[in-house]
Amino acid sequence: MMDELSNLEGQEKERELPRWVQAPAGIVLGLFTLLCGYGSLVLLFGVHEQRPVFASLVGFVLLVGCLWVLEKCFRLLTGRKVQGGLLSPRALRGVSFYLLIVPIAGVFTGYYRKMGLVAVFQALMFVLSFMGLQKLARRREAEGILHEVAGQDIHSRETKPER
Description:
- This protein has helices at about 1-10, 20-45, 50-80, 90-110, 110-115, 115-160.
- By secondary structure, it is mainly alpha-helical.
């Protein structure tokens, strides 16, 4: 474990986007998310004759997703620093598994037969995105462990009496 931690110390840190990029991105993404949130509310509270329960359930899930994205936009706008980055390792893993749903669904819907080589390229990009997010989650998790170990060392030095 200590070998992994020492290897991490030598690696270069993740670079952050400058504030002049973060703030406009937060505004644009926030406005788009508010529009999507409105659509989710309409789906949640609208009258649906065919499948009212399903429409309400989908509207609720989409609304929760919109609220989560709005929280991320708020963090982009305020520039609040979080140790693990904008997304935690658990959130990165969750997003990465959702990226795998698209190529798997394409097999069952006949998308690959219809679109051909383009669909195969898209599936490859989704799988590569999955692997990249998994790697980023592992790195952020290891950095979190490194910060915890460093914090424990600092606290243990403060509490030990000097002779």
